[in-house]
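re the bet — no i am not wrong, look at it urself. input seq straight from the record:
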Amino acid sequence: VQLQAPGGGLVQPGGSLRLSCAASGSIFSINAMGWFRQAPGKGREFVGSIKWSDGSTFYAGSVKGRFTMSRDNAKNTVFLQMNSLKPEDTAVYYCAASLMSGGSDAQRYDYWGQGTQVTVSS
């Protein structure tokens, strides 16, 4: 499985940004996709996850109500819509694929994208 996650960029506080992550390869084995982020000097933090089967989502408390995950099964792509962005959302964002049920534990993810920088600053 290969994950391509272009996008990212610089956005002002209160702004919005959408990340995408396209999966290729043995995608039939994927059960869930997730987004994680890592800010400078901090560990990798769970952002959200989505199940391929029914699109059910699960979010970290820090982003719930501001971030939304969705999927396009036909394009094997998941999206992370980020609204009301805050400076503390600044991080490298990683998409990941899980052969299990996903969730918030990074160890449950088997494949990782290369990471994309999101900077929230005025």
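see?? Residues 104 and 113 are 16 Å apart (CA to CA). told u. also The chain has a mean pLDDT of 95. so pay up
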